[in-house]
Design brief:
By secondary structure, the protein is α/β, with parallel strands linked by helices. The protein is built from 5 helices and 8 strands; from the N terminus they run αββββαβαβαββα. The chain is about 40% helix and about 20% strand. The longest helix has about 35 residues, at about 1-40. The termini are far apart. Mean pLDDT is about 85; it is low at about 20-40.
Length: about 200
């Protein structure tokens, strides 16, 4: 009788343990499916829920007026830089050039924009030099303005505009309809951004 009670006790413990394992496994599967559904399009990066990208109007490195809305109909890569940056900005610019090379002929269907976070240090001359140094010569605008002109853009995209050695690059990938699709940070690879843009081009 005592052996039967011990056996029953052990069986109940084992059964309880199996139930716990099953519940944890099902919970993990549910979360995995949820994450996959959040990015069904295959885009890599942090999802931005297709919110309309705030429009703005600034001037580029050649003094030409440029607005985000004018590129409706093609994917846009939007970032924030300063020309005297020695860390994240040059790396990001080099990656952008690599993305253009990887896109090949499709590069002409994508626009890349960089908004200055240094209204005092960034000028048309320094923006042109920066662009040329990183071989960003087409489908690329380095956007400039005064503090009063740039600040609303920084605020709209939650950018802390303080040029420093610890500057991190924020990259917004915007679709043809002008909606924010994904966010990338300094760790993005050219292959990831190229893949995202090809998906948006095919939509």
């Amino acid at each position: 009788m005592r052996m039967s009670w011990r056996l029953a006790s052990r069986l109940s413990v084992i059964t309880l343990a199996l139930l716990v394992v099953l519940i944890v496994a099902l919970w993990g599967l549910r979360n995995t499916n949820g994450s996959a559904n959040a990015n069904q399009s295959g885009l890599q990066g942090t999802s931005l829920d297709n919110k309309p990208a705030p429009n703005f109007r600034l001037t580029d490195q050649f003094g030409k007026p440029v607005s985000l809305a004018q590129f409706r109909g093609e994917p846009v890569v939007l970032t924030f830089m300063y020309t005297h940056c020695q860390s994240a900005c040059p790396l990001t610019a080099n990656k952008f050039h690599m993305v253009q090379l990887q896109l090949g002929k499709q590069a002409s269907q994508v626009m890349m924009l960089a908004v200055s976070i240094d209204p005092k240090g960034d000028t048309e001359a320094t923006a042109q030099q920066f662009s040329e140094a990183h071989q960003l010569r087409s489908n690329w605008h380095y956007l400039l303005g005064t503090q009063a002109e740039l600040a609303p853009v920084w605020n709209a995209y939650s950018i802390s505009a303080s040029p420093s050695m610890n500057h991190t690059t924020a990259i917004y990938v915007i679709d043809k309809q002008g909606n924010e699709r994904v966010f990338l940070d300094n760790d993005f690879t050219p292959a990831q951004l190229t893949s995202d843009l090809k998906i948006l081009l095919a939509e």
